[in-house]
Amino acid sequence: MTWLLLSLLLAQPPAPALEARVQKLIDASGGEVAVVMRTLDGKAQLRIDPDKSFHAASTMKVPIMIELFRQAEAGTLSLDEPLPIRNEFHSIVDGSVYQLGVGDDSDADVYKAVGTTLTLRQLCEAMITVSSNFAANLLIERVGAANVRKTVDRLGASGMVVLRGVEDQKAFDKGLNNTTTAAALAVLLEKIAKGQAVSRKADAEMVAILKRQKFRDAIPSGVPEGVEVAHKTGNITKIHHDAAIVYGPRPYVLVVLVRGIQEQKVSGPLIASISKEIWDELASTPARPR
């Protein structure tokens, strides 16, 4: 029996009241919602549609970051390596060239660097903290989407499937999209939190980057002010996700995936409400010995 399977069997399920309260929020929202929570000590968990597949949106940037740090650890690249900034990418359908538009991105700074260079470290920071699509595309071409998938599978998170960069319209039209499950994202974040994704040093650097995330209207809004949250959001039309490591008295991983709600001003508070229910539950139930 593997350690992971044993830990899952030993994990105490949450009080039924918590699952009922979270399900009530989901039912009232009218959206499709998947939730996975697991304390880092492995003693409590909540799983609602953990294996339902969603468009990954920008949560796919987490495995890109992991692969970047893996290759840096292996010595095949350096995080301080300069990369030429060119707004030119290739569709996975036929290799045709496409470009990104600054108006469709969440950050303009990388576009200002076209014709110059930025380091891989700088691009990773932009990709995670302000969710730069331009930075993500540059990095996925540098590390290779196939390598990202291999690393995801090795870590046991095969529900995350990274096929391509952002805004590949030909691929989108053919249904070739990056997808994820709540369970897969939870595995990746738990590996990072425990120093098991790449190495303790590399994973600590990734946690620090995730803590600098600028978009905080979802999971962080459901925990008390001052609690550290290392997380990555994802938003496209009718999609809003947040995946986090919450550093409370009982640190835990929480992933909430939402589909079918048009307005982020509605989906954000929904995720925050789920986050608060989980925080309150864990704060009121101290960990018991195995």
Question: Mean of residue pLDDT?
Answer: 93
Distance between the termini: 18 Å
Number of E strands? 11
Shape: globular
Show the helix and strand layout.
Blueprint: H1 3-10, H2 16-29, E1 32-39, E2 45-48, E3 54-55, H3 61-74, E4 82-84, E5 89-90, E6 97-98, H4 109-112, E7 117-119, H5 120-129, H6 133-143, H7 145-154, H8 169-173, E8 179-180, H9 182-193, H10 200-211, E9 228-236, E10 239-247, E11 252-259, H11 264-284
Helix pairs in contact: 2-11, 3-5, 3-6, 3-7, 5-6
Short description:
The protein has 11 helices and 11 strands.
Question: Describe it for me?
Answer:
The chain has 290 residues and is α+β, with helices and mostly antiparallel strands. It has 11 helices and 11 strands. The chain has a 5-stranded antiparallel sheet with strand order 2-1-11-10-9, sandwiched between helices. Helix 2 (16-29) packs antiparallel against helix 11 (264-284) and helix 3 (61-74) crosses helix 6.
Please supply descriptive tags for the structure shown above:
290 residues; alpha+beta; 5-stranded antiparallel β-sheet; two-stranded antiparallel sheet; globular; disordered N terminus
